[in-house]
Amino acid sequence: xxxxxxxxxxxxxxxxxxxxxxxxxxxxxxxxxxxxxxxxxxxxxxxxxxxxxxxxxxxxxxxxxxxxxxxxxxxxxxxxxxxxxxxxxxxxxxxxxxxxxxxxxxxxxxxxxxxxxxxxxxxxxxxxxxxxxxxxxxxxxxxxxxxxxxxxxxxxxxxxxxxxxxxxxxxxxxxxxxxxxxxxxxxxxxx
Length: 191
Hints:
Blueprint lengths: L1 H8 L6 H10 L1 E5 L4 E3 L7 E7 L1 E8 L2 E9 L3 E2 L2 H4 L8 E4 L3 E7 H10 L3 H25 L2 H11 L9 H8 L3 H14 L1
Antiparallel strand pairs: 1-8, 2-7, 3-6, 3-8, 4-5, 4-7
């Protein structure tokens, strides 16, 4: 659980008592490649920290999967729009690799906020990051051409480009795989 502790420490200082509380509130879980952490229509019951592996968020629109986000080691995974009010999700979260996860339930996150000295601050800061990422992604989708969106993907996720199938990257950027191939060739030709 060291990566979990370090991931929380990026936001708040932790005492030994805080660390003990965290270890008692989170559960370890393993997921195979291709399995879902969450399927649309189900309620998101956990916040998850990825200890090892990679996941993608996607929706299905007109029968076609649209990848909307990726998370990797040391990052938190959750559909907060489902988790916070405990209502059915509209998104899917799928493991792209075998994953080692640390999960905390809706009830236990409330205990986390109570027991960990700066637990509520952690919650606020973590949600601010999620909110800013979402706003920037939506802004880019409406304002930036595909080549810029691909470059933003590379800057935001520099270490996962080789771990993710190209058609998921194309979907995330909002283009067809053939268009992504052309963009990649143009960018390679510039160097």
